[in-house]
Amino acid sequence: MAHPHQGLENPVHAAGEGAVRSKGTKPRSYFRFREANMGTMNAIYVKMNGVTISRIQREFPAAIIEPGELFIGAVLPNSACDPPHDKLAALSSEIGGDVIWLSFQSASDSSEFHHWSHARILRSLVFGCWKDERTWELALGETEPWETEVFFNRKMLEFALRFAVTEEEKHEFERIWRDTELLPGRTEPSIDARESAREIACYYKFPGWD
Questions:
Q1: Quick check: 18 pLDDT over 60?
Q2: Contact 59, 44 (CB under 8 A)
Q3: How far from each other are the two terminal CA atoms of the chain, in whole angstroms?
Q4: Taking CA 195 as the corner, what is the angle to CA 144 and CA 179, rounded to the nearest 5 degrees?
Q5: How many Å apart are CA 178 and CA 190, to the nearest integer?
Q6: Most distant CA pair in the chain, distance
Q7: Which of 113, 91, 85 is nearest to 204 (CA)?
Q8: In angstroms, what CA-CA distances link 100 with 17, 43, 85, 130, 204?
Q9: What's the pTM?
Q10: How confident is the model at residue 108 (pLDDT cuts 50, 70, 90)?
Q11: What are the CA-CA distances from residue 38 to residues 78, 141, 145, 182, 204 (Å)?
Q12: CA 106 to CA 38: how far, in whole Å?
């Protein structure tokens, strides 16, 4: 099954391979991408632990590089929808810190989040990307602090309860939210992939999202 991220034009990639957005500047194609509330994104964020922009450019020559205060961002073309797990784990080992993959496709509400530190995977979340649309496919590692507000907020619970058919189903939804439980094969909590990515980016203070 084709990944839902594939086949869509990536406006940021039009700026050219290896492009860099300097602090305080916004290349036109990248600015339109953000302002249009992009529908697709594949990005890598590397913690600023002495890592240089040129190092990231060498590793990901097709990316647009976005420097920030805490992380360096690398926005990849849409064809690069498959996270390079081994490469990102090795990079996190090299820098002795955090490397995060964040991607989404809003038309299908598909999303991936992977977080490495010192070569160890801390958290992996996949929603509707490779098997079934709008279904949790993977939830590995320890729950991160942002997940309660992003996936299990009161507004999302109230929306889910509207579609509960029985009292038993309502109680189960309430339990899932109370326990902040993500399980593969389950459709709840159903997320807005783009909005979830934005909230994750704001939590980590990723560049390019303000």
A1: no
A2: no
A3: 35
A4: 40
A5: 15
A6: 57
A7: 113
A8: 21, 8, 10, 19, 10
A9: 0.83
A10: confident
A11: 12, 29, 26, 26, 19
A12: 8
